[in-house]
Amino acid sequence: MPDDLKTLPEGGEVRETRLADALSERYLAYALSTIMSRSLPDVRDGLKPVHRRLLWAMHQLRLDPAAGFKKCARVVGDVIGKYHPHGDAAVYEALVRLAQDFAARYPLVEGQGNFGNIDGDNAAAMRYTEARLTEVAQALLQGIDEDAVDFRPTYDGEEQEPVVLPAAFPNLLANGASGIAVGMATSIPPHNAGEVCAAALELIRSPQATTAELLRHMPGPDFPTGGILVEPPEAIAEAYATGRGGFRLRARWQVEKGRHGTWQVVVTEIPYQVAKAKLVEQIAQLMEERKLPLLGDVRDESTDAVRLVLEPKSRAVDPAVMMETLFRATALESRFSLNMNVLDAERTPRVMGLREVLRAWLDHRHVVLKRRTEHRLAAIARRLEILDGYLVVYLNLDEVIRIVREEDEPKAELMKAFSLTEAQAEAVLNMRLRALRKLEEMEIRREHKRLSAEQRKLQALMRSEAKRWEAIAEELEATRARFGEGALGRRRTEIGRAPAPVALEGDHFVEREPITVILSQKGWIRAQKGHLPEDAELRFKEGDALHGLVHAETTDRIVLFGSNGRSYTLRADAIPRGRGDGQPVRLMVDLGNEDEIVALFVHREGARRLVAASDGKGFVVKGEDLLAERRTGKQVLAVEPPARAVVCAPADGDTVATIGENRKLLLFPLEQVPEMARGRGVQLQSFRDGGLADAKVFWRKDGLSWRLGERVRVETDLAYWRGNRAGAGKAPPSGFPRSNRFGG
């Protein structure tokens, strides 16, 4: 040992200890201090020591909800001076969080001044802000002056502080908790106090209730910032049963329609503990990095209420797909973990399930009820003792006056003469003369009677555990009515369903733009931006005119059906754009010189078409069977010259109408026409002269309609023309177009 260490001051001592042992001993002491005195909440009142000391200090300052505010600096000063010897910044931060309605589901402190906001801005300095307790905090402290809980000396031994609060409010589950200790952490989301009380009442009524039965009353977290919970129910049940799990929370959004088909998404609620300003910054950064290709702009139009406006790159974008990309890439969807690691009644840290947490809180309330009842019984007994002494005085008033006036030791004489206790004799000697009135005697007798009745009631309560649980149930009902109803008690977080998986394929990131595809009679095709009205003025080559016009989007597939019975498919974005004449269809598909386009339409999933040739044969075909991958197209309707395909109409209805070149009309059920992928089909109508001119499918209840010039006529009395497939038909109604076509 070095010589300088051999010379020790008086009372000093040197112990040889292994470094590993010294480190482990000291680190264990630090870890236990962090776990028990800083980071983990108590299961009984849901508070960490700093929060409990804040509420106790404010209670000592009489900062009740009906009292005036006091500077936060005064509160923080009392806390760090008397109870919590830590930095003032940490204590003030804890106080601020208790007052923020977007951080605490049920704030325990009512703040006056700048206490921060949901954007993530800090509160003003504590010398500017003021605070007082809320009614929720008052409920947590209810009965603390009635020996409801134990007290312990403060760090310097000069004051007393409560070990735990009486907690008439289910604070642990209602406000949640989070903290990181040494080797363990806790994370408990906020819940609806009314639902928590309902679950606790269920546990009182059915002590063996399962977690699933409790979740019928308390289905999940209720965050102060709202949002939509999208966790599957079975995952929620598992998390509450074990005390470990997590919850997916999404922002609440809606689509607002604008003019000319435009729209925007408005986010009105964001996930819990997400700073709005940082969220907007994150979205803007991802847009700059081109990681949100469907989003055009983001704006924060929030006032007191959250309002984030998200504009799409194009109005053709699917809102659900755009929001799915945002949920996957930004904090508009977050995950809040559940880890109910708390200190139990023996101050031992352990993970509890929902049922254990509620049971621990109810057991604490049972202990508080017994202690408050015992305290009240002791107070009643002391008061009844005094009142009994007063009544003796009134019965022997003259003798009492004589003893007081004449005896040298009146206290001893009174005790001897009337068998009074020392406390009774002292109270009699301290009586005022005005208390000797007859009215005072009557008032004392009434008080004695009332206290005696209360004493019997409380003694019966102490003798019966069933009555005590009935009393606790009544308290819970009162708490639920007080904090579980109205604006404060309304559930804010919607319990939604787990979202269906959305496959974000490559075409989702292609901009969808509305276009109008225009086909001329001479076979020139082009597309113009936007959806033009059917009567729009269009320019064509000299001698040409409009043949077909459809509204589509740039991601659609356009189907052309030729008179040769073949179908051809074009990508909408491959059709020439602009206001020119376009491009001949024959340069885009292998259409013969003698063939022409019979129909032009947009492919829709699940749609069916009626195809028919001029010889009267036809069938129903699925829209998917009309799609062709090659320029040569696909042979769908087998046509034997000189016949040609003349119809490719939507098969949406229950009745088929056919009209022949001989001007004969026939109606028959659509179910008589088979569905085929290719072939000649069946005879739709028989003809002695000519062939099929046109056909359509319609709903019989709506009537048969046709266009005559600018007008549309409808015939509803159709019995005359109804028959069976392959019939000859009858003359059409008067006013039917001479062109023998339903389109005019």
TrEMBL record:
<feature type="site" description="Interaction with DNA">
    <location>
        <position position="86"/>
    </location>
</feature>
<dbReference type="GO" id="GO:0019897">
    <property type="term" value="C:extrinsic component of plasma membrane"/>
</dbReference>
<dbReference type="InterPro" id="IPR013760">
    <property type="entry name" value="Topo_IIA-like_dom_sf"/>
</dbReference>
<dbReference type="GO" id="GO:0007059">
    <property type="term" value="P:chromosome segregation"/>
</dbReference>
<dbReference type="InterPro" id="IPR013758">
    <property type="entry name" value="Topo_IIA_A/C_ab"/>
</dbReference>
<protein>
    <recommendedName>
        <fullName>DNA topoisomerase 4 subunit A</fullName>
        <ecNumber>5.6.2.2</ecNumber>
    </recommendedName>
</protein>
<feature type="site" description="Interaction with DNA">
    <location>
        <position position="48"/>
    </location>
</feature>
<feature type="site" description="Interaction with DNA">
    <location>
        <position position="84"/>
    </location>
</feature>
<dbReference type="InterPro" id="IPR035516">
    <property type="entry name" value="Gyrase/topoIV_suA_C"/>
</dbReference>
<keyword id="KW-0799">Topoisomerase</keyword>
<dbReference type="GO" id="GO:0006265">
    <property type="term" value="P:DNA topological change"/>
</dbReference>
<keyword id="KW-0413">Isomerase</keyword>
<feature type="site" description="Transition state stabilizer">
    <location>
        <position position="127"/>
    </location>
</feature>
<feature type="domain" description="Topo IIA-type catalytic">
    <location>
        <begin position="40"/>
        <end position="504"/>
    </location>
</feature>
<dbReference type="InterPro" id="IPR006691">
    <property type="entry name" value="GyrA/parC_rep"/>
</dbReference>
<dbReference type="Pfam" id="PF00521">
    <property type="entry name" value="DNA_topoisoIV"/>
</dbReference>
<dbReference type="InterPro" id="IPR002205">
    <property type="entry name" value="Topo_IIA_dom_A"/>
</dbReference>
<keyword id="KW-0472">Membrane</keyword>
<dbReference type="InterPro" id="IPR005742">
    <property type="entry name" value="TopoIV_A_Gneg"/>
</dbReference>
<keyword id="KW-1003">Cell membrane</keyword>
<comment type="subunit">
    <text>Heterotetramer composed of ParC and ParE.</text>
</comment>
<comment type="similarity">
    <text>Belongs to the type II topoisomerase GyrA/ParC subunit family. ParC type 1 subfamily.</text>
</comment>
<dbReference type="GO" id="GO:0003677">
    <property type="term" value="F:DNA binding"/>
</dbReference>
<feature type="active site" description="O-(5'-phospho-DNA)-tyrosine intermediate">
    <location>
        <position position="128"/>
    </location>
</feature>
<dbReference type="GO" id="GO:0005524">
    <property type="term" value="F:ATP binding"/>
</dbReference>
<dbReference type="Pfam" id="PF03989">
    <property type="entry name" value="DNA_gyraseA_C"/>
</dbReference>
<dbReference type="GO" id="GO:0009330">
    <property type="term" value="C:DNA topoisomerase type II (double strand cut, ATP-hydrolyzing) complex"/>
</dbReference>
<dbReference type="GO" id="GO:0005694">
    <property type="term" value="C:chromosome"/>
</dbReference>
<keyword id="KW-0238">DNA-binding</keyword>
<dbReference type="GO" id="GO:0003918">
    <property type="term" value="F:DNA topoisomerase type II (double strand cut, ATP-hydrolyzing) activity"/>
</dbReference>
<comment type="function">
    <text>Topoisomerase IV is essential for chromosome segregation. It relaxes supercoiled DNA. Performs the decatenation events required during the replication of a circular DNA molecule.</text>
</comment>
<dbReference type="GO" id="GO:0005737">
    <property type="term" value="C:cytoplasm"/>
</dbReference>
<dbReference type="InterPro" id="IPR013757">
    <property type="entry name" value="Topo_IIA_A_a_sf"/>
</dbReference>
<dbReference type="InterPro" id="IPR050220">
    <property type="entry name" value="Type_II_DNA_Topoisomerases"/>
</dbReference>
